[in-house]
Design brief:
Elements: H1 4-7, H2 9-19, E1 30-31, E2 39-48, H3 50-61, H4 65-74, E3 79-89, E4 95-105, E5 111-117, H5 136-145, E6 150-154, H6 172-192, E7 197-206, H7 208-223, E8 229-236, H8 242-251, H9 258-274, H10 289-296, H11 306-309, H12 312-319, H13 324-332, E9 344-349, H14 358-369, E10 375-380, H15 389-403
Parallel strand pairs: 5-6, 5-7, 7-8, 8-9, 9-10
Antiparallel strand pairs: 1-2, 2-3, 3-4, 4-6
Keywords: Signal
InterPro entries: AB_hydrolase_fold, Lipase_secreted
Protein name: Secretory lipase
């Protein structure tokens, strides 16, 4: 979910294997034309030349001769980088404005649009629309886009211009809606600027981003099947089968890492609020963990196996089905049991101790049982949550390259 410093270093080697063969400025926000429904404004963050992209990447990733060679081989086009503000809905269905990043190569080549849903982010200043040069997402997205992919990156609610709102962590509907509306706003901008977009849309994300991507894909296919030409989707290591996953972490020994437990507890806090349960944290967690969570949020100290941190009464209510309000909240966020029609690849490490492999396996089995024919399960043998990222990235961009 996190560990972003490790994530995008793998982009370097990824692109070398796939594509070897083949001055900053800013402006005031440009208001949307009246014909646009979602786009509120766009601000040019920077123009990046190919030389600047290469220099930034070399500084960030280090002066390794192999990496330097790779970077020069990948970069094909200059970039225009925009912050986009757009209209969307919050978890309570109220109208709000959110933000995201849109990166466009300077080329006449017709390009696909990738919607990239980022993983768990605990530092607001690293949200995509800040285009923070210290962010691995910033450097990775720049490299990818310079290979002639348009990339749209929603900040999500709770980051960027909506930072005063709580982030609805692992909430299916609001992640899908904010990502969908960012995609719509990006397309409005592309049409407004007469950008060479080939009308193909691709979706991808890992961890929370994998969950968000699955939710987005499902929403597009089931509610807006004719609005987009959805060409390819990859989801990496997401918690799709939440009903089963929650029972597992409540009843079995987990990794015991406080950071991991904070992510699990973040889900508890999110659903507790969004679904109007409004319980004290000591309903869910034993002391002193409940107080630490109540006072410190994502920075709480929660060491030990998660099943030993939760209260017996909460565990019992989930296991015997009597805690109907929380069980229904979990079910509302399941994204595994449906039939996709466009191509989908699921990537997951068999040794993932944060978001267990069973999430992707059960998702694949459920989709096949419903008659899906375009779903592939990419089991990454023996690798954990972080270690699987290289395989996910390599597979994703091989897949997207074949569909571009």
């Amino acid at each position: 979910m996190k560990k972003q410093q490790l994530y995008l270093k793998f982009y370097l080697f990824l692109f070398l294997s796939i594509w070897i063969a083949g001055c900053s400025s800013s402006s005031d926000p440009t208001p949307t034309p009246q014909g646009n429904k979602y786009l509120v404004s766009s601000t040019l963050i920077t123009n990046l030349t190919k030389t600047q992209i290469i220099t930034n990447a070399n500084v960030f990733f280090g002066s390794d001769p192999t990496l330097n060679l790779f970077i020069q081989a990948v970069v094909k086009s200059d970039l225009k980088v925009y912050k986009v503000i757009y209209k969307t809905k919050n978890a309570d269905n109220t109208d709000i404005q959110a933000s995201g990043l849109l990166v466009i190569p300077s080329t006449t080549e017709a390009m696909p649009l990738i919607s990239y849903q980022h993983g768990t982010q605990t530092d607001e200043t690293f949200a995509p629309s800040y285009f923070n040069l210290k962010s691995t997402d910033t450097q990775g997205v720049s490299l990818i886009s310079s290979n002639n992919f348009i990339i749209s990156c929603p900040d999500y609610i709770g980051y960027g211009v909506s930072k005063n709102l709580e982030h609805p962590y692992q909430h299916r509907e609001s992640l899908a809606q904010s990502s969908l509306d960012m995609t719509r706003a990006s397309i409005e901008f592309l049409k407004q600027e007469k950008t060479s977009w080939n009308n193909k849309l691709m979706l991808t994300g890992y961890s929370e981003g994998g969950f968000a991507t699955m939710a987005l894909m499902k929403k597009i296919e089931q509610q807006f099947p004719t609005e987009f030409s959805l060409t390819a989707t990859t989801c990496g290591a997401g918690g799709y089968n939440l009903s089963a996953f929650v029972k597992t972490i409540l009843n079995e020994t987990t990794q015991g890492v406080s950071e991991y437990n904070n992510y699990y507890a973040w889900v508890l806090r999110t659903y507790n609020k969004i679904y109007g349960l409004n319980r004290q944290m000591n309903v869910y967690l034993k002391e002193p963990y409940a107080t630490s969570l109540q006072n410190n949020g994502i920075n709480a100290s929660l060491p030990g196996s998660f099943n030993l941190l939760v209260t017996d009464s909460f565990k019992k209510g989930i296991n015997d089905g009597t805690d109907t309000p929380f069980i229904n909240a979990i079910k509302d966020n399941d994204t595994f049991d449906w039939k996709p029609s466009s191509p989908l690849q699921l990537y997951h490490g068999s040794a993932d101790k944060l978001i267990f492999y069973s999430n992707s396996e059960s998702t694949y089995n459920a989709m096949i049982a419903r008659g899906a024919t375009n779903v592939e399960l990419k089991k990454i043998e023996g690798k954990d949550h972080i270690g699987s990222i290289q395989d996910y990235l390599l597979g994703t961009f091989t897949f997207f390259s074949s569909k571009r």
